[in-house]
Write a structure and sequence with these properties.
The protein is of the alpha/beta class. The protein has helices at about 50-65, 80-85, 125-140, 160-165, 180-195, 225-235, 245-255, 265-270; strands spanning about 35-40, 70, 90-95, 95-100, 100, 105-110, 145-150, 170-175, 200-210, 220, 240-245. Strand 8 (about 170-175), helix 5 (about 180-195) and strand 9 form a beta-alpha-beta unit.
Length: about 270
């Protein structure tokens, strides 16, 4: 507790043993914007394809006729713009920062659009990174959206906490892979979401299998799938298994994510969007 404490918790954002009231960390959406549903895509570790899942959720929603935006909250490792072939494009307009728009109409904001050289590292401390994420919500002119997808960085640190506390998240999609530590990783993400009183809408097991090009047999490269077992354990209502498919990576690298078609994923998205 500070020596200057007034004991009026409603005016203070600090956490201390004297706190008797909850502080409202919510950030106000850009005044010229209106956003319907907000879904965060999370994972307890990196390298599981979280940004790919965020991209495909947005594409699935676009195909449903929804107006969609993606807020790339992975400040130090932004990859969403490349998936849509976007470079630069964000600028300050009369109503705020104007995001870039994909060929299919998906609005995207990412730090890569606001820096001179996207290959330069972002060497910022946690509070500055978290502040940038909030500004993507408060300062960007999103217009009118039916759905906002938030691509979060891995783990349970500053940025995921900021997203859960500051944005009106309606639900969370957890991304995993079939590796040995998957249960612990999924558990961290699910438990954090529920600590923040956010429902977990679905579980995506990425890199779940490869399909033999000759016979079509599914080959489980990284071990047997545990997605159904984990969904039952954590009471997650929707699941999907995504294959290892070089054509997905090729399309994303070419900025053509909107042309990727995964019927199983579209069916999964229809359940949660």
């Amino acid at each position: 507790m500070s020596d200057n404490c007034t004991h009026n918790c409603s005016t203070c954002g600090k956490s201390c043993g004297e706190r008797k009231a909850e502080f409202d960390f919510s950030a106000k959406l850009n005044a010229a914007s209106k956003v319907g549903k907000v879904i965060a895509v999370a994972s307890g570790k990196g390298g599981v394809g979280k940004s790919f899942v965020s991209t495909m959720l947005a594409v699935a929603a676009m195909r449903q006729g929804k107006k969609v935006g993606i807020l790339d909250a992975d400040i130090t490792g932004p990859s969403i713009p490349k998936a849509f072939g976007l470079s630069g494009g964000a600028y300050q307009g009369p109503d705020g920062i104007e995001p870039s728009t994909s060929n299919g109409g998906i609005r995207v904001i990412s730090l890569n659009m606001l820096v001179e050289d996207p290959s330069d590292p972002v060497v910022w401390r946690g509070p500055v990174i978290a502040g940038a994420v909030k500004q993507f919500w408060t300062d960007v002119h999103w217009g009118e959206l039916d759905l906002m997808i938030v691509d979060m960085p891995p783990g349970t640190g500053d940025v995921p906490l900021t997203v859960f506390q500051s944005l009106p998240v309606d639900g969370v999609v957890v991304v995993s892979s079939p590796q040995e530590l998957v249960e612990m990783i999924v558990s961290k993400s699910v438990k954090m979401a529920r600590m923040m009183n956010k429902p977990v809408l679905g579980l995506v097991e990425n890199m779940s299998y490869a399909k033999c090009p000759d016979c079509g047999r599914r080959i489980e490269l990284f071990g047997a799938s545990r997605v159904d077992e984990l969904a039952k354990k954590f009471d997650i209502p929707a699941t999907v298994r995504l294959p290892v498919d070089p054509s997905f990576a090729a399309s994303v690298d070419a900025g053509a994510a909107e042309f990727v078609e995964i019927p199983d994923f579209d069916a999964f998205a229809a359940k949660i969007l």
